[in-house]
Write a structure and sequence with these properties.
Elements lengths: L2 E4 L10 H13 L6 E4 L9 H9 L2 E8 L5 E8 L5 E5 H5 L17 H12 L4 E5 L10 H6 L3 E3 L18 E3 L11 E5 L12 H5 L7 H22 L11 H12 L2 E4 L1 H9 L1 H5 L4 E9 L8 H11 L4 E8 L13 E4 L7 H6 L1 H21 L1
Parallel strand pairs: 1-2, 1-11, 5-6, 6-9, 9-10, 11-12, 12-13
Antiparallel strand pairs: 3-4, 4-5, 7-8
Helix pairs in contact: 1-13, 7-8
Keywords: Kinase, Transferase
InterPro entries: Glyc_kinase_flavodox-like_fold, Glycerate_kinase, Glycerate_kinase_RE-like, Glycerate_kinase_sf
Pfam families: Gly_kinase (PF02595)
Length: 380
């Protein structure tokens, strides 16, 4: 075996994608000392996307003070990639659930303003290509906060600015975009969006994602009505269909805001990442691909890293092995999507806490055993 490409995601709560790739390579190298092991940590467009793209490009992490989802200041990170003109922003860094204690979540008033401040920061640093990952938001404001940070004014019937949050959108009477940052017209946005929900309705932002952001039944109804009104106002202002476009409901309606005001395309997060890290070029001349994530199960086929990597590998005619921290119900489904074999790191009955504590040792041992099997196969 001449070359193996190692392209895993992180093992959530225990190992970063870079650490996972390093441990897999170490385990393999002990059994395959003459094989080229190319490490290419990746992500699916959610948590870890910033790290994966900075690792791949040699970019710079930038820390910035922004407005958090509860309208209070916090520090968030974004990255300028190695090409000097592309930036990657994770919405969750500025406007994510991670910043709001569970008992304080309130999508009626939470704001995405901080995400807009990160975009403005990227523009100030010269970025003209921006990758925006939408996962993990705490907001249901239709992206109005993000656009407010970029110059859009949301006014009520009396010409007064609306307060932050999704509930206030019910009072929207006029959209003033005359002060929208003119640099946006020079930009290209790739929006990492792994859901196809419309803005409103039974499959919309409020109904599907509102409860995890703190909305009860009455709040969901109020927010859905507010976003429906907001969607009509957006369409009237922009002269195009917005609310029913697949993905418009992503991140509490951030997809709708992007479609209305940003020069963008909504794409699967895994495809954005794999293109950005150059996976296809890395696969040239490879004999095998090894991928993985913290848990492999029946849900892995829906936009997760191992499946995205496997699909690219199959386009090159390559076999694929996936290593998971654990294997769950329905994991057999991955075999229909390009993964030829799966291995679990945990080799004994254990608690979750113990599995996380010993994740590194378990992963390296599993990779060593995979390497031993490959070595035996090359001798036979």
């Amino acid at each position: 075996m001449r070359k193996i490409v190692i392209a895993p995601d992180s093992f959530k709560e225990s190992l970063s994608a870079r650490e996972v790739a390093t441990l897999i390579a170490r385990g393999l190298a002990s059994q395959l000392p003459h094989t080229e092991l190319l490490r290419l940590p990746v992500a699916d467009g959610g948590e870890g996307t910033l790290d994966a793209l900075l690792d791949a490009s040699g970019g710079q992490r930038i820390r910035q003070r922004v407005t958090g989802p509860q309208n209070t200041p916090l520090f968030a990170n974004w990255g300028m990639l190695g090409d000097g003109h592309s930036a990657v922003i994770e919405m969750a860094s500025a406007s994510g659930l991670e910043h709001v204690p569970r008992d304080e979540r309130n999508p009626l008033t939470s704001t995405s303003y901080g995400t807009g401040e990160l975009i403005r920061g990227a523009l100030d640093h010269g970025a003209r290509h921006i990758i925006l990952a939408l996962g993990g938001s705490a907001t249901n404001d239709g992206g109005a906060g993000m656009l407010a940070a970029l110059g859009v004014r949301w006014l009520d019937a009396g010409g007064q600015p609306l307060p932050p949050g999704g509930a206030a959108l019910a009072q929207l009477a006029h959209i003033d975009s005359s002060a929208l940052d003119p640099r946006l017209a020079e930009c290209r946005f790739d929006i990492a969006c792994d859901v196809d929900n419309p803005l409103t309705g039974v499959h919309g932002a409020s109904t599907v994602f509102g409860p995890q952001k703190g909305a009860d039944t009455a709040m969901v109804a109020l927010l859905d009505e507010a976003l429906a009104h907001y969607g009509r106002q957006l369409e009237q202002h922009c002269g195009q269909v917005i609310a029913t476009v697949p993905g418009a409901g992503a991140a509490g309606g951030m997809g709708a805001a992007a479609l209305a005001f940003l020069p963008c395309q909504l794409r699967r997060g895994i495809d954005i990442v794999l293109d950005s890290v150059g996976l296809d070029a890395a696969l040239e001349g490879a004999d095998l691909v090894i991928t993985g994530e913290g848990r492999l199960d029946g849900q892995s086929i829906f936009g997760k890293t191992p499946i995205g990597v496997a699909r690219r590998a199959k386009q090159h005619g390559l076999p694929v092995i996936a290593i998971g921290g654990s294997l769950g119900d329905g994991v057999e489904a991955v075999h229909q999507h390009g993964i030829d074999a799966v291995f679990a790191c945990v080799d004994r009955i254990t608690t979750l806490e113990q599995a996380l504590e010993h994740a590194a040792a378990n992963l390296e041992r599993c990779a060593r055993n995979v390497g031993a099997l490959l070595a035996l196969g090359s001798k036979s």
